[in-house]
Design brief:
The chain has about 280 residues and is of the alpha/beta class. It folds into two domains: about 70 residues, lambda repressor-like DNA-binding domains (434 Repressor (Amino-terminal Domain), Orthogonal Bundle), CATH 1.10.260; about 150 residues, Endonuclease, Chain A, CATH 3.30.870. Helix content is about 50%, strand content about 10%. The chain has a six-stranded mixed sheet, with helices on both faces. Helix 4 packs antiparallel against helix 5, helix 7 packs antiparallel against helix 8 and helix 10 runs antiparallel to helix 12. The protein is elongated. This is Helix-turn-helix domain-containing protein. It comes from Streptomyces beihaiensis. Pfam families: DUF5753 (PF19054), HTH_31 (PF13560).
Length: about 280
């Protein structure tokens, strides 16, 4: 049977497929053999190999188990390089800084910040994006898994100091129904009690004194340098120039001064939770 010629330079997905074929043929395996070892169909293996379908995290991990690949040479590592190409500009680099930051400052509007989301809350948001056609259902699951990895990176012997200011809409806007929202509010209350956290809510009546109109992330690194990350609907921007970052840090301090105290914020969260039927 004639086989398609693969051009690994055509795209990252094509390079992934070409590597899969090369490793498969070096083992003397058929596509059916790979399918049996990864619990996918041979049709799926062929589609990825020929670049007709992008790889998923689950499939990449299945290939690593089948071929014994690991580390920088793993299919999962290659998948993440492809995946990062679809993320907003600046975000992959931001995540690398986030995982080793000494201090994390977050401001969010409308939804609970990702690092504080429960799996169920995160899954509802991802599934909603899939229903709208923004992402596929597989990508929705991968988005939740990626968030879990970001959260896990913060669980270390010396966890970062986390200062979080949420717009009141984050706790008032119900996501996923009563059960999901109740558990999410419980998670926020637990977060506020940790020794390395400060949680504040910026109430609606802050009005024009709110210094940010978009979510803002500020990271202080071990060398005391600060990086900032902000994004719109279409693009993200990572800023490392101190001349640009320091005014944002000053604005964050102003935001904290206008926000409710942690005690008052916890009381509001408890009030909202009690109001959920």
């Amino acid at each position: 049977m004639n086989k398609n010629e693969l051009n690994p330079d055509a795209s990252p997905e094509a390079a992934f497929g070409a590597r899969l074929r090369s490793m498969r043929e070096s083992r003397g395996w058929t596509q059916e053999d790979v399918a049996a070892r990864t619990e996918y169909s041979s049709v799926h293996v062929s589609a990825v190999e020929n670049g007709r379908k992008p790889p998923t995290l689950r499939f990449a991990r299945g290939l690593d188990r089948a071929f014994g690949a690991e580390g920088a040479n793993s299919f999962e590592s290659e998948y993440r390089e492809i995946k990062h190409g679809h993320l907003l500009e600046g975000f992959p680099e931001y995540v690398k800084y986030e995982g080793r930051a000494a201090e994390i400052r977050l401001y969010e509007i409308g939804i609970v910040p990702g690092l504080l989301q429960t799996p169920a809350y995160a899954q509802v948001l991802a599934d909603s994006a899939a229903r709208r056609g923004s992402i596929t259902s597989e990508h929705a699951d991968e988005r939740v898994a990626f968030l879990a990895e970001r959260q896990a990176a913060l669980v270390r012997s010396r966890p970062p100091m986390m200062l979080v200011v949420m717009d009141e809409s984050c706790v008032r806007r119900q996501v996923g129904g009563p059960e999901v929202m109740r558990a999410q509010l419980d998670r926020l209350a637990e977060f506020a009690e940790l020794p390395n956290t400060v949680l504040q809510i910026a109430p609606y009546d802050i009005g024009e004194r709110r210094p940010f109109d978009l979510p803002m992330n500020l990271l202080t690194l071990s060398d005391l340098s600060v990086v900032a990350y902000a994004e719109s609907q279409l693009r993200g921007h990572l800023e490392r120039d101190s001349a640009a970052v320091l005014p944002l840090l000053a604005a964050y301090h102003q935001l904290q001064a206008e926000a409710l105290s942690q005690a008052a914020s916890a009381a509001m969260i408890d009030e909202v939770r009690k109001g959920i039927p």
